[in-house]
Each structure stands twice: as C-alpha cells, then as structure tokens.
Specification:
OB fold (Dihydrolipoamide Acetyltransferase, E2P); 2 domains; 18 strands; 8-stranded mixed β-sheet; 14 helices
Length: 481
C-alpha cells in the first residue's frame, strides 16, 4: 500500500473517531508513571502513555508495543477487560499516541505487559512511520526528517543525549573553577575574533547593517576589561563558508578567558576539561577515535610548531626563506591554494596544516605559531616572530585553539591593520579594525589567556562520529527540487 493510501485510510478512521465523540487531539493526560517505571511495577496498576510502534490482533486479544522516552512495553488488550470498547481498537494505528491504565502482568510467554482496563486516544497519526524492524537507513531522510530518525534509531538519540551531557559537563567544570557564564550579541556592528567570512544582515529598526557573529571573543574580552576575571560563553557562531564533514556555516562554540593566565594555564584547564568529560560520559579516559583507542588521561606533550615540522618533515623553518617555503609548499602540499603573496609565517602555517595534523594521534599540544596568522595572540616572550598560541590535536584532528591574549592596544591596532593587508584568497576573512574594542583595551586589560573549542567537533570526538550531520539535530541541507 502506498503512503497516500495509508493516509486516506487514516483520514477515514479520523472521521469515525470524531463521530464517536472522541477528541483525536487531546489537551493533556494524567500520566502517572513512565514506561521504565511501569516495567518495574509487576502486580501494580499503572497509568502511562506513549506512541504505538506495533499492533497485532488475535481474536479477542490484541498486542501493541508502546514507547515513551524511557523505554518500551507490551500492551495486552483483552476483550474481557475492555468490553465494548475493544472493537474500537481497530481505529488505532501505528504512530498514534495513547494513554492506558491497567495492571502490570507477566504473560504466558513471560513478557512484562500492561493489561489495560481502559485506553484513550491522545493523538491520531496521519502518516505511517517506518518499520522498526527495517529501521530508517536512508541518510538523506534521516537528516531531513530527524524526528523519524530519533523515533526509529535509538542510537541516534543516545548521541544527542551525549551532546547534552557534554555541554552540561562543560558548565559544571568551569563553574566549579569560578567562571561566570555570559551572553554576548549575536548581531554585531562589526565582525571579529576570527578569520572568517561573515553573514551580513540589516536591522530595520536601527537602519543599520549588522553581521552575525563569527566569534564571541572580542565581547568576552570587553567583559574582562569590565572586571570579570573568569568568563565563558557557549553560543552559536556563523561563518559564511564551505560545508564538509567537519564544518557548517552555523556551529556551536565554547570560549573562555581567564585573567592573569597565559597559554600554559589555559592548556592545563582545557586538558582537565577533556579528562573530566571523558569520566563523566564513560567513567574512564580511554576513548575510540575512528579505529584507534586513545588514552587522554596522561599528561599531553607540548611541542613547538617549528620543532614538529623539523621532526616530521626534516624542514627547519627557522633557516628556510619565504621563497624556499613557497617552493616546498608547491611541491609537497597538493591541493593547498596560495595567492603567491603569502608571508613566511603564512607559508609555515599552511605547510603545517597540510602535513602534520594527521600524524598527531595521541593527545598533543602544538604551541608557538607564526605571528602573521595569530593577530589576537601575545608575542612570544623569547622567540621573535612567533606568538604564544596553541592548538590541541587528538586522533589526527584539531580539537581546540587558544593563546596568551594580546593586551597592548597599540600593538593590537597594528595587528588588525596588518591582517587587513595580508594576502588571502578572500579579503572578507580578515580581522577588522574594531575601534570600540581598541578603546576598551586602552582602559586596561589584565594579562589574559583564552581558548575556543567547537562543540560540534567535541561531540564528534566523544561519540566517534566523524560527520557533522550525525551530531547536529537539524543540519543545513541543500534545497530539494
């Protein structure tokens, strides 16, 4: 039978239901027990509700599987208990929500069931849901109709439950360290805090062009200038860029900033967070990343970018020139797009990003980055041309990015201007000169360390699902024709 035929049959049933005086879309139901609680109540009378996932009749008895968010239970309908109302069971369908009241019994087959003395239709379903036996396998349908995916595939719901627990665990960890959670603007008059192309919009009430934030960094730093010594935000950011297995234009970030801290302290806190989350979710620190088992519980090594390049590629970037690095990139970094005008620091970073991350399987901090690719980071205290920046890598994947924050307003202005002039394929990705932020800095910003972690990437890591569409409830998709 086609879906349109199923719907036609259900619409006919809906007419009969209304003719009986039933309300097919109830206002509420006094649900006394969850299904999980009902399963533990043998011999007792329960009153519960859920969605029908299977239904079969055998003369004067019928069986249904009823599910709520806590579990599934068999409903054992019997004519001797329901009387005249038994015949109206034919008006129910898989997908309907019902409420039932009755004793918890064990059938002759040994299955714990509810033997209802009454039932009530709560919501009539007009579309047939996919069979649980065959499941919902088509990924396109799964992403476009996530509600069906959640109904049919319990492991999908578990992944999203882990996402919720991770975010809760982040708050728990940072709150216990004395951080304050803040909310900063999504609509901003100027974008900044990252190198990314923004979404532009217009606020009619103010007659102002605005941007969806690409990062919350510069507003969180304003809060530090305002006296908050430890502050964080979990928020949506928007970057008008490409889509792949790890990136969406809309994504979730956690950023935190701590006064009087440098990048060493921030790495300590971040490393502690990862271990805290692993124990919260799994009770241990050994995790699967793709086909590898990785223990994140040990001390993570900190390796300078120049050192890892020399160690893995035999490339001494301190001795190389801009021209030699450009030649190296052209020979060895297939697919890397260059404008031809990149600085030495940009070339070092491009080579690193193309060649090194996939080699970093065990948890590793890569530290000390070229100044030209880190306009918001503090200059390195002992290495000219480098800044105190780090990225965390596990299983060959970047997990987080942070630095000792630049607190000199005059140098920050120079960096903003330099970033605007830097060679890049898309000029809109440059940091803008944010005069209001620079004014705020001139009132004094304490020594400061900060970090950004993509929540989506974090969930991918902790669930070992390396496609962003699997861990975002309603992913951005191309329009169907």
């Amino acid at each position: 039978m086609q879906d349109t035929d199923f719907r036609k049959v259900r619409l006919e049933k809906l007419k009969k239901i209304k003719a009986l005086g039933w309300n097919p879309y109830a206002h509420s139901f006094d649900k006394k027990q969850t299904i999980a609680e009902a399963l533990k109540s043998l011999g007792k009378t329960v009153k519960t509700a859920g969605k029908i996932f299977s239904y079969r009749e055998h003369g004067n008895i019928a069986f249904a599987d009823l599910k709520d968010e806590t579990g599934k239970i068999q409903i054992f309908f019997q004519k001797k208990l329901l009387g005249e109302n038994y015949k109206n069971l034919k008006l129910l369908d898989i997908g309907d929500y019902i409420g039932v009241e009755g004793e918890i019994i064990k059938t002759t087959a040994g299955e714990i069931s509810i033997a209802p003395i009454s039932y009530i239709l709560l919501t009539k379903s007009l579309n047939s849901i996919p069979s649980e036996f065959f499941g919902l396998k088509d990924t396109e349908i799964r992403y476009r109709q996530r509600y069906l995916d959640l109904l049919i595939n319990p492991e999908v719901r578990e992944s999203f439950n882990k996402r919720t627990k991770l975010i809760s665990g982040i708050r728990e960890y940072l709150d216990n360290l004395g951080f304050w959670e803040a909310e900063t603007p999504t609509l901003q008059p100027l974008y900044g805090g990252a190198n990314a192309k923004p979404f532009k919009t217009h606020v009619n009430a103010l007659d102002n062009d605005m941007y969806l934030r690409i990062a919350d960094e510069l507003y969180l730093k304003r809060l530090v200038i305002g006296g908050y010594e430890k502050v964080y935000e979990i928020c949506k950011d928007f970057r008008n860029e490409g889509i792949d297995h790890a990136h969406f234009p809309e994504f979730t970030m956690i950023e935190w900033y701590e006064a009087y801290a440098d990048y060493n302290r921030v790495m300590d806190v971040a490393e502690g967070l990862f271990k805290h989350l692993a124990k919260k979710l799994y009770g241990h620190t050994t995790l699967e990343v793709e086909d590898k088992k990785i223990d994140i519980g040990k001390k993570w090594p900190r390796i300078e970018m120049s050192v890892i390049l020399k160690e893995k590629l035999n490339l001494d970037v301190e001795k190389e020139t801009r021209e030699s690095l450009k030649a190296y990139a052209k020979r060895n970094c297939v697919g890397v797009r260059l404008t031809g005008g990149e600085t030495k620091g940009q070339l070092i970073f491009a080579i690193f990003e193309h060649k090194i991350p996939q080699l970093l399987i065990n948890p590793t901090w890569i530290i000390d980055y070229p100044e030209e690719v880190s306009p918001l980071a503090k200059s390195h205290r002992s290495k000219q041309g480098w800044v105190e920046r780090f990225e965390g890598y596990i299983g060959g994947k970047e997990i987080c990015d942070g630095w000792s924050e630049l607190t000199d307003p005059q140098l920050q202005r120079e960096r903003f201007i330099g970033d605007l002039k830097a060679e890049r394929l898309d000029k809109e990705e440059a940091q803008q000169v944010d005069e209001d932020f620079l004014t705020a800095m001139e009132y004094g910003m304490p020594p400061l360390g900060g970090i950004g972690i993509g929540i989506d990437r974090l969930v991918m890591f902790f669930t070992n699902k390396w496609a962003i569409k699997e861990i975002v409830l309603f992913p951005n998709l191309r329009k169907t024709t």
